[in-house]
Amino acid sequence: MPPLTLEDVAKVAGVSVSTASRVLSGTANVRPAKRDAVMRAAEQLGYRPNAIARGLASGRSMLIGVLTQDIASPFYGETLRGVEDGLEGSGYSGIFASGHWRVESEASAIHSLTGRSVDGLIVLGGHTPDARLREINTHLPVVAVGRQVKGLEDRCLRIDNVRGGYDCARHLLELGHRRIAYVAGPRDHRDARDRLEGHRRALREWGIEDDPALTLEGDFHEPAGLLAVEALLARGAVFSAVIVANDQMAYGVRLGLYRRGIRVPDDVSLVGFDDLAGSAFTTPPLTTVRQPTYEMGMAAAEALLAILNGASPALPLFEAQLLIRESTAPARSARPGLPARPELRPGERS
């Protein structure tokens, strides 16, 4: 049996070959009746467009390059899932490469993606200079997620991390906490700096002096949270709550407190940031800031498709949302490391 062709679909649908082509490639608007007829004919015949042939005909590769930072990261995993779903049905496929938060690695990843003749580029965070992204955008449309690119502001999706950090601290301050430890992300990471800035802004508004002994820097991975707890206890820091710059490190903090017999939230309240899928199922469920990562990934894909079809992208506004769960509670009197029970020593449990 000869292979099915576009002409077969057009004949069954009762439309021209060019109309069938436009419907199946999604390159132009077609009246609903004709579109439905073409889709029904394609489904009836079992026709599947040849992506390579379609790309040759349109002068496009039908590939979208996606520069992420860590494909294994649960945070970026949700964003990538949104990108994939946003591309679904468009005829485009995504190619993914990781930059690992290093300028050299990102440059290599971008070189690899553009070497595949991708039709557009989605950039998730990273340290690639704004000037380089503007240069790429002169010949290849770029949409950025989780960062602001000067000169490409209308193609960037990000939340207000300063406000997110502020809301975390405000929540604990309203519960009566005054000695709040903070586990920050890497200082060269814009999101980490913004969240810390929001935290410090809230402390200033409450008239609380920022104690450097209560702030530690991590790397956004779980072991950093575990080490932060040990460092705080080793220096005899007095705290009744801990804010962590992302959920992954918050998991490490939770483990570190558990190993020292410190109860959450009875002894120490704990707040994360990101609302990863597992954060609602920790013990206790984690108070955290939700980032709409899946929705942002989908919006980025849809915006890039609009640009490729000659339209102006309409980027929605996204907001961070504090989700209050059982890991935070009103403050009790603070003592070094173990605020509630002066009789309990490190290593002992109730």
UniProtKB/TrEMBL annotation:
SUPFAM superfamilies: lambda repressor-like DNA-binding domains (SSF47413), Periplasmic binding protein-like I (SSF53822). Residues 4-58 form the HTH lacI-type domain. Residues 330-350 are annotated as: Disordered. Coiled coil: none annotated. This is Transcriptional regulator, LacI family. The keyword Magnesium does not apply. Keywords: DNA-binding, Repressor, Transcription, Transcription regulation. GO terms for molecular function: DNA-binding transcription factor activity; transcription cis-regulatory region binding.
